Amino acid sequence: MTDESELASLVEDLAGIRVLAVGDLMLDRFVYGAVDRISPEAPVPVLRIERETVMLGGVGNVARNLRALGATVCLVAVMGRDQEARDIKGLLRDDLEIESHLIEDEARPTTIKTRYIAGSQQMMRADRERIVPVSASLEEEIVARAVADLAQAKAMVLSDYGKGVLTEPVLRRLIEAAAERGVPVIVDPKGSDYARYAGATLVTPNRRELAEATGGMADGDAGIVETATALIEASGVNGVLVTRSQDGMSLVRGGGVEPLHLSATAREVYDVSGAGDTVVATLAAALGAGIAVEDACRLANVAAGIVVAKMGTATAAANEMAATLRQRELDVGESKTHTLEEARSLAQSWRRQGLKVGFTNGVFDLLHPGHVSLLRQARAACDRLVVGLNSDASVKRLKGESRPIQNDASRALVLGSLASVDAVVIFPDDTPLAVIETLRPDVLVKGADYTVATVVGADVVQSYGGRVMLASLEDGHSTTATVARISKK
Prior knowledge:
Oligomer: single chain
Structural class: alpha/beta
Number of strands: 18
Strand content: 15-25%
Shape: elongated
Distance between the termini: 39 Å
Number of helices: 17
């Protein structure tokens, strides 16, 4: 599992990735105001309009989200020949990193979604649209323009809002062309016939759409997995990422691959408008950058958590994602620090699950690569790793009044932010013997500069059948030596 700091560094890899986005384009209009009274004409609230905004919607919002991540975009879409189409062109005009191929269709008006919002509450949405499949000649033009870009694109998004642009022939030809070039395809789906998306890398239905597509009950982790697996088998798509609102996301793939369930990240949800566009945009940019699908889904989950905490059709910028991940890293670090009694309960719970508990200890003052290597080796030898951390008072006794450089709370926070560490216990004694006797670890780990005979607690662990492991050391890394070098400057 990739930890939060590593995920944050992956965000930088999204910059400059070229993504082809094809689908239904629309204009999102937001009308904001206040409600002070009920209409005398009918029992409805009266919205006193204060301001209006317009922005790209549908596949246009996918393009906006891609640009917020630093990706470049080729946008292929159909619109009418009207004022709204001119508004869309104006919104796209100033961004040189979006290559727009906007095909005009006189037979249809540009789709407009108008949302009326009082305070932070959406009161109503009004849609103007004409839902009809594009003509055969427009199908050819859509495919030709999209396929021409596949030579440069690293990923393709098919944003299907069911307005008639992504017909079955268009979908089939674009997915086949992408497969021939090894380009991943992410589909934001519509309707119940997912066989239209056969061969796609991932489709991203929400829980309701998944249930409608299969006729199954998409509830709970087990229900989601069962229903999504049935969809994969019936439709021929390669994987399903189910967005589950307050329950997060679930990634399900064929071939017996273990599903991945991700918890929701938004602390407060204001507006889910456009969150699906954010998810597919992040997935496409991440897969286009060569990021593993599991980590691509984790990034998409973070991005979705950012946008639903905003009003309107919002985007998640790369710097927002990195900041969110780094804050989560700090939160996780704090949550892993436990009292000895809490750690004992944790260890007992893990053993009841059949998990092997490991233990190591140290001062870990200025964390360096040698520490990281030791912790990774320790974690590889067990299922859950508890780290004993010398308190400030014990460090002073052991290393002198000038140490520690960082207090024990700070050192615990840094340790807890590492994926290799599952729990941290700060102990007041000079040795961790009392902690070892309380936790009774299955594996006790120290560096190879010790012998088994000199490891504190080795006899205790061996007495009940536990194992003592001596981890190899990284040469040239020492906190004491680092402090000495700094003091000479």
